[in-house]
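Reminder to self: keep the SMILES exactly as supplied, no canonicalising. Ligand is adenosine-5'-triphosphate.
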Amino acid sequence: MHPVSLKNVSKIYQLGAVEVPALTDINLEIRGNCFTVICGPSGSGKTTLLNLIACIDRPDRGEVSVAGQPAHAMSDDALSDFRARHLGFIFQNFNLLPVLTAYENVEYPLLLTKMPAAQRRERVLAMLEAVGLADKAANLPGQLSGGQRQRVAIARALATAPKLVLADEPTANLDSQTGAAIIALMRKMQREQRVAFVFSSHDAMVQAQADDTVLLRDGRIVSVTRGEPLEDAAAAELSA
Ligand SMILES: Nc1ncnc2c1ncn2[C@@H]1O[C@H](COP(=O)(O)OP(=O)(O)OP(=O)(O)O)[C@@H](O)[C@H]1O
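Structure tokens returned for the bound complex:
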């Protein structure tokens, strides 16, 4: 089963009396355990599509299925509960809570689950270690660089072992060198945790790292480019 499936999806924004068709008749399947990038020019519908996949918004027409659940038909409460349990988020402005330490920011989503304290501590420390920030656990976000903040955000997004991680322009506020390191880290974490990552990005470097690329223009899909599935690539490497 694909972690995300959209069937005949359309989204129209109402701007006063004017209807703005942001997405028109989108049919798309996002593969599991893959790095998928949504790209396209400004205004082409990337954020709108990501918000539908993220269960932040609902379509005006069509069906959105996320991790087997019909997101288009769920109530607001059910959607927010579903987001907390099954999805991870990485934002371009990091969205860390400024009064919480790096440790506490990563712990925060786990407090919403009923994970026992000792297991929670183990998980937080393992995630901070995995993103290379074990020694910064006690720092507040204001005491970290942009790249380090985004590392905390990656650890936080993956702490609950989500089925899907969504990232809206995750490198937009980073210099190109730090952005490249963050993308490499996300790639490593995506493989290790065997989770599907879906990004929106203008960044050619992000696009170059993708398994699958979805190109949008004027709210429609122009092309979907699929790379080799990870399992096949690994098998080919082994048999070479
Ligand atoms: N809240 C809104 N109300 C009205 N129109 C909107 C709203 N949000 C987006 N739009 C319109 O919907 C279309 C798609 O917008 P969207 O933000 O999804 O594009 P995008 O590809 O993410 O753009 P960018 O790369 O500039 O962030 C655009 O024409 C935009 O003007």
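Points to follow up:
The CA atoms of residues 92 and 170 lie 4 Å apart.
Helices lie at 46-53, 76-86, 102-111, 117-130, 146-159, 176-193, 204-208, 230-239.
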